[in-house]
Every structure is written in structure tokens, then in C-alpha cells.
């Protein structure tokens, strides 16, 4: 667990405890104290979320080289191999990815990742070919285990350097410092 994740969990537990204490104070007739606790908790939560977005605004987009893993909590993702077959005006790209778990006790899965797609330097999107996604990104991974997944893409021969992107449907707002792509297009995995 990263320091930013630990900070979020501690602050979340503290805020939950403060709100429970405020509810008990309100039930005992101390509404002024309860209101004060709720207002302070809301202000501190707003400051924390502001820091999450400030960190996202000042950081650059994340670019991950071929073979290096990028982890979201205990779920890790890496592009490990790219095979290209040129066929006239198109190139078929076979991308092999490694999904792994760095968890020590619990089964992991990534429910926020729908699938992957490729982008070129002009941010043109290329979706995987139908039938090339036999292993879903949301596969359940035992602690310390990994699985390989493959996707095939067809791109124009002159498209230039390509990057792989994860198509996500995340929580409506960011809560972990350093894991927010609010001001960027997302993490790019280089294929070269």
C-alpha cells in the first residue's frame, strides 16, 4: 500500500469517526457541537480533495515504458510485448499485457478498466479487433499471481508511434493523491 493510499484511508476513517461522534452529540442535544464537527469535517474533506486535484494539475501526464508495470492499488498492468505484421496499407499489432497482483492476502481485480485501445501522436483512437479479448482486464488475481492478456489492433501503416491506453470508468471524482488523471488524457503505455 502506498503512502497516498494510507493517508486517504486514515483521513476517511477519521472523518467517519468524527461524523459518528457528531451524530451522537446531536442525539444528546448538543446540536451546536454537532454542527461544528460536521462543518469542520466538510471543510477538511474539501481541502483534501482540493489537494488531490492540485497535485493532478501540477503533475504531467504519466507515460509508462514498454515492460514496466503501473499499479492502481494492488492491481498492476504492463505491456510486455508488441508484435507487428505489415499487410499493405495496414499494420496488425498484437499487444501482450501482464495483469498482476501485488496483494499479499486478498484476491484482486480491476473493475474500473473496461478494455484498452491504441492512440497515435494525433490522438486518433484504434479499438481492439472483435474476438481478440479472451482475457478480460477485470480477471480475478490471487495474491502475487499474474496473467497474460492479448489484444489485436489494425492501424494505418504510417500512423507513427503508438501508445496503449486503458479505457476506464472510474469513481466520479478523484480521492487518492497521485492517481488522478483529471487534467490529462490518462496513463500512456509506450509500445516501443
Could you characterize what this model shows?
The structure is a single chain. The chain is elongated, with a radius of gyration of 21 Å. It has two domains: 3-58; 63-190, Immunoglobulin-like, CATH 2.60.40.1240. Helix 1 (3-27) runs antiparallel to helix 2. The chain has a five-stranded mixed β-sheet with strand order 1-9-8-5-6, with no helix packed on it. By secondary structure, the chain is of the alpha+beta class. The protein is built from two helices and nine strands, in the order ααβββββββββ. 28% of the residues lie in helices and 31% in strands.
TL;DR?
With 192 residues, the chain is α+β, with helices and mostly antiparallel strands. It has helices spanning 3-27, 31-58, and strands at residues 63-64, 70-72, 75-87, 90-101, 113-119, 125-126, 146-156, 163-168, 188-190. It folds into two domains: 3-58; 63-190, Immunoglobulin-like (Sandwich).
Amino acid at each position: 500500500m502506498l503512502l497516498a493510499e494510507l493517508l486517504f484511508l486514515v483521513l476517511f476513517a477519521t472523518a467517519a469517526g468524527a461524523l459518528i461522534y457528531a451524530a451522537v452529540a446531536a442525539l444528546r442535544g448538543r446540536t451546536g457541537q454537532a454542527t461544528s464537527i460536521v462543518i469542520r469535517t466538510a471543510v477538511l474533506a474539501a481541502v483534501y480533495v482540493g489537494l488531490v486535484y492540485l497535485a493532478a494539475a501540477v503533475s504531467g501526464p504519466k507515460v509508462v515504458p514498454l515492460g514496466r508495470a503501473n499499479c492502481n492499488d494492488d492491481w498492476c498492468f504492463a505491456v510486455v510485448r508488441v508484435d507487428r505484421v505489415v499487410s499493405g496499407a495496414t499494420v496488425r499489432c498484437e499487444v501482450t499485457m501482464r495483469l498482476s497482483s501485488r496483494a499479499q492476502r486478498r484476491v484482486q481485480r480491476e473493475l474500473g478498466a473496461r478494455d484498452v485501445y491504441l492512440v497515435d501522436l494525433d490522438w486518433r483512437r484504434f479499438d481492439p479487433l472483435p474476438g481478440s479479448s479472451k482475457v478480460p482486464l477485470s480477471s480475478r488475481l490471487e495474491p502475487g499471481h499474474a496473467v497474460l492478456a492479448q489484444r489485436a489492433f489494425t492501424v494505418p501503416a504510417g500512423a507513427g508511434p503508438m501508445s496503449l491506453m486503458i479505457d476506464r470508468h472510474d469513481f466520479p471524482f478523484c480521492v487518492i493523491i497521485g492517481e488522478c488523471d483529471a487534467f490529462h488524457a490518462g496513463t500512456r503505455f509506450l509500445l516501443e
